[in-house]
Amino acid sequence: MRPTRCRTRLLLAATLAASALAVPLGVHAARGADSGTPGAPPEPEPAGSECRTSVEGSRVVAYCHNPYPSTDLVQLHTECERWWDVDADGAAVAVEPGRTVRLEDRCWKEIATAWVSHRPAPA
Predict the structure, then answer these.
(1) What distance lies between CA 115 and its chain's CA centroid?
(2) How far apart are CA 110 and CA 82, in angstroms?
(3) Residue 32: in which H helix or E strand, if any?
(4) CA distance 123 to 119
(5) How far apart are CA 58 and CA 62, in angstroms?
(6) What is the distance between the alpha carbons of residues 74 and 91, in angstroms, rounded to a whole number?
(7) pLDDT for the residue 66
């Protein structure tokens, strides 16, 4: 009777060991690692400032607020209405997380368009 109990225990232990080794392999295969199909790329973190631009006569003012955890570089661009008036690209200003900056520019006469461009700050 004794050898049968010993064999039963060994058989049970071997079965548990084999199943413990097989589970990680099944999970690995289920994730597509061995199938040759690439997994979904990670989603990029949201970034960028929200800017509000207002034009009044020959002056333009933009307020940019950055609610995200990464620093954003903003730059005000102004096109003047008159052909002889110089268009301008302002200096890039860093907007740190949770901060608001004010950008302003002007033309001699009327402003045709004004916009703000964004780019991530270098690390």
Answers:
(1) 22
(2) 7
(3) none
(4) 12
(5) 14
(6) 8
(7) 95
Distance CA(49)–CA(89), nearest Å, equals 18
Going through the chain in order, the beta strands assigned E by DSSP cover 50-56, 59-65, 72-80, 88-89, 93-95, 100-106, 111-120
Q: Which two tokens stand for residue 25?
A: 């392999």
> Distance between CA atoms of 36 and 104, rounded to whole angstroms?
53
User: Please, are residues 51 and 62 in contact by the beta-carbon 8 Å criterion?
Assistant: yes
Q: pLDDT class for 48, splitting at 50, 70, 90?
A: confident
The answer on pLDDT for 43 being more than 60 is yes
Distance CA 103, CA 66 (A): 14
Angle at 22 between CA 17 and CA 24, to 5 degrees: 115
pLDDT single digits (tens) 70-90 = 999 999 999 999 999 989 999
Residue 22 parent element (H or E): helix 2-30
